[in-house]
């Protein structure tokens, strides 16, 4: 095939890009068939692909969100409510968020007494780094409430009945995601808490992870939109691998042979589940709020990627290089700004009573690097290329980190399979 002399691309490259930017029903169904995954994940990814053939991206007005949120909450509580002081909320880079004060009767209030409660609307944009289910996010926050600090999940609009895109409403949580002395970074990327704050936060970081992983998952309707793993089976792990590979096939701009090689290895070497845990799937620095003066974690955020699965997924994600930095001695590497990797695993075993298996650590070390490469090189790049999000500048920035992630994946994969 002859490269185009002006663009440097081939005809096939342009065809591949076109079918992903404007996917046919046949293409969508072919990818779904090749990479079967959880039912709700399939629903979300299929909706993402079909959305690409709809209207082009337009910024959502704040008034539109206020109106839709008032109608959603009125429908849920059964009487008219009013939203005041609505404003955009920063953070949560892959989602649109609005902070507001809800004037209502409260959760348990009788009569007509008015209560004012600060809340947050969290809504999908037209496209994002992580396509995920507001239904699942809502369910998992409800499931862990009382076990770890999380914002109160109030209502959801999972099928966009009231709002432009699927959304949920949760309580406003106080705290900061960055220490005041290191606030210039993209949240969580090499976040340096400093020795004093780190000493207070690190034990909580471990303790909350242990609590999450030991929490019984219950029976439906608890976590009803999650497929249930079986102890002794690797089917749930394979569904997760397929979900990542499916995103790659749907969103990639160009092929990378290493992605095909690693995918096959992940399928062949998937470990059976030995203990079913709620897995946060984005457990790291930057995804919790804390009171800087007290050194206390006030809320765990960003549950959108949560799954029922293997605890080692969270352990190895927290230890990814992108969330590391050197300690004050210039030599010791601190994972998620907390502690050396080996110390994190030892502290987790003590806190949770669950073993840390080196073979599973290697496996999920590969899986998480594969997933990050997918999200940066495929999902982020596709969303930015299609100008289909409010975060084009940020997505172009993180997409540029994709080849660093790919290099890290290849290096780790070689060491893990040597």
Distance between the termini: 36 Å
Unreliable residue stretches: 1-10
Name the average pLDDT: 92
Percentage of β-strand residues: 5-15%
Spatial strand order of the main sheet: 1-2-3-5-4
Radius of gyration: 22 Å
Note the total helix count.
13
> Sheet bearing the most strands, described?
5 strands, antiparallel
What structural class is derived from the secondary structure elements?
Answer: alpha+beta
The helix content is: 40-55%
CATH architecture of the domain at 59-125 and 133-172, please?
Answer: 2-Layer Sandwich
CA-based shape: globular
CATH topology of the domain at 59-125 and 133-172: Phosphorylase Kinase, domain 1
Full CATH superfamily name of the domain at 59-125 and 133-172: Phosphorylase Kinase, domain 1
Describe this structure in words.
By secondary structure, the protein is an alpha+beta fold. It is 43% helix and 13% strand. The chain has helices at residues 11-21, 25-34, 39-51, 62-77, 134-144, 194-214, 235-251, 257-268, 312-318, 341-352, 358-385, 392-399, 402-416, and strands spanning 82-88, 96-104, 115-123, 153-157, 167-171, 277-279, 288-291, 296-300, 307-309, 325-326, 333-334. The protein has a 5-stranded antiparallel beta sheet with strand order 1-2-3-5-4, with helices on both faces. Strands 6-9 form a two-stranded antiparallel sheet. Strands 7-8 form a two-stranded antiparallel sheet. The two termini are 36 Å apart.
């Amino acid at each position: 095939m002859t490269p185009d002399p002006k663009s440097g691309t081939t005809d096939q490259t342009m065809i591949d890009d076109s079918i992903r930017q404007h996917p046919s029903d046949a293409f969508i169904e072919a990818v779904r068939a090749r990479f079967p995954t959880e039912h709700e994940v399939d629903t979300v990814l299929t909706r993402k692909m079909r959305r690409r053939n709809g209207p082009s991206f337009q910024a959502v007005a704040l008034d539109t969100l206020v109106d839709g949120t008032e109608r959603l909450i009125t429908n849920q509580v059964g009487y008219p409510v009013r939203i005041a002081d609505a404003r955009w909320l920063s953070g949560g880079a892959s989602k649109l968020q609005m902070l507001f004060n809800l004037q209502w009767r409260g959760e348990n209030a009788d009569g007509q007494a008015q209560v004012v409660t600060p809340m947050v609307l969290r809504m999908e944009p037209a496209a994002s780094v992580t396509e995920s289910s507001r239904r699942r996010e809502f369910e998992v926050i409800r499931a862990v409430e009382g076990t770890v600090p999380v914002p109160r999940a109030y209502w959801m609009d999972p099928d966009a009945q009231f709002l432009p895109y699927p959304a949920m409403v949760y309580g406003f949580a106080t705290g900061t995601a960055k220490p005041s002395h290191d606030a210039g970074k993209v949240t969580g990327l090499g976040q340096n808490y400093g020795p004093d704050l780190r000493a207070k936060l690190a034990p909580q970081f471990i303790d909350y992870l242990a609590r999450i992983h030991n929490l019984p998952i219950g029976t439906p309707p608890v976590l009803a939109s999650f497929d249930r793993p079986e102890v002794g089976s690797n089917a749930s792990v394979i569904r997760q691998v397929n979900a990542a590979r499916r995103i790659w096939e749907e969103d990639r701009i160009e092929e990378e042979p290493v992605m095909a090689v690693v995918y096959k290895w992940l399928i062949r070497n998937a470990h059976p589940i030995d203990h079913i845990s709620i897995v946060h799937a984005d457990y790291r620095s930057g995804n919790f709020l804390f009171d800087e003066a007290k050194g206390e974690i006030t809320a765990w955020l960003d549950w959108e990627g949560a799954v029922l699965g293997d605890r080692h997924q969270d352990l190895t994600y927290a230890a990814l290089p992108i969330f590391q930095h050197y300690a004050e001695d210039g030599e010791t590497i601190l994972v998620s700004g907390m502690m050396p990797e080996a110390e994190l695993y030892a502290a987790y075993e003590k806190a949770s009573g669950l073993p840390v298996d080196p073979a599973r650590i290697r496996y999920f070390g590969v899986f998480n690097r594969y997933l990050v490469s997918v999200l940066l090189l495929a999902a982020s790049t596709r969303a930015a290329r299609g100008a289909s999000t409010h975060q084009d500048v940020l997505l172009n920035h993180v997409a540029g980190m994709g080849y660093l992630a790919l290099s890290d994946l290849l290096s780790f994969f070689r060491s893990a399979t040597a």
